[in-house]
Amino acid sequence: MSTESVPTHCGFVAIVGKPNVGKSTLLNVMLGVKVAPITSRPQTTRRGVRGIYTEGNRQVVFVDTPGWHQPKDRLGQFMIEQIDTALEEINLVLWVVDLRHPPTPEDEDLANRLQGVDAPIWIVGNKIDAAKYPEQAMQAYAALLPNAQRHIRLSALKDPKAVYRLREEILLAMPESPFFYPVDIRSDQSRQHWAAEIVREQAMSLLREEIPYSIAARVTDWEERENGVQYIRAEIIVEREGHKAIVIGKGGGMLKQIGQEARKQLELFLGSKVYLELVVKVMPDWRRDPRALRELGYE
Ligand SMILES: Nc1nc2c(ncn2[C@@H]2O[C@H](COP(=O)(O)OP(=O)(O)OP(=O)(O)O)[C@@H](O)[C@H]2O)c(=O)[nH]1
Ligand SMILES: [Mg+2]
User: Whole-model pTM above 0.70?
Assistant: First the structure.
């Protein structure tokens, strides 16, 4: 039998939900590689990132999205637009909810938004490992979206097998279609972009209070040196001089720690030695400045 006669299946799957419910965790486990940054802080994801999973003649293009929230600045508006874009021409929506808690007004708001989506919606109740009343919580979420096709309970963090079972069902739900990506591609973002997200992830995890939200990161140089070392130069962007001092820390301690943690992650996923040079730069009020946002790729 020639391979041409085997039909291929492919489709787009949006992963949406409130901030911090575990969308990016779910995506990373689904793909088996770290495509998206994860922190314990809400609003970690800022951009719709595509993660591609291919198995045999089936391919899924997952779109991880920022957490649904009321935007307070231009960056927030950009984030909400990323959700709207992800919900266009979609084959399936995974609405990720946190089973540890009942729905909040933000969930109600998102459920209303999802009413208008044509594609089937599956509710993925996450964090069941830490949920006291998972059944009641799921019922309350399901009541917000009566047209949801399926209710799935799992722990993206603690139970990868449950995530693989879900992935299997998603693969089977994809319509007949040519593949959108080559079979060896896992993400649509450049490696520069991905590395910048790792730096931001570590900075967001280590810094306190409002500082995590006023941080951006970008890679400005990447060279493969002869000895096999990847030389990466990245900038951590902050909004004010005062923040710069906090990111650098006493005697440069904080910046060093961010660098060490980010380097570990980069080395793990690149499989080679990394020399990471970090620089802190001030872009006054970048979250409200259209030019700065454009420069940082938030447009
Ligand atoms: N207990 C538990 N924690 C989880 C689970 N999945 C994710 N988390 C944690 O929840 C936090 C948020 O995870 P993310 O994957 O960044 O959540 P997100 O929905 O992508 O968040 P935003 O990008 O901010 O919208 C992290 O601390 C995760 O380790 C789970 O199944 N159980
Ligand atoms: Mg995320």
Answer: yes
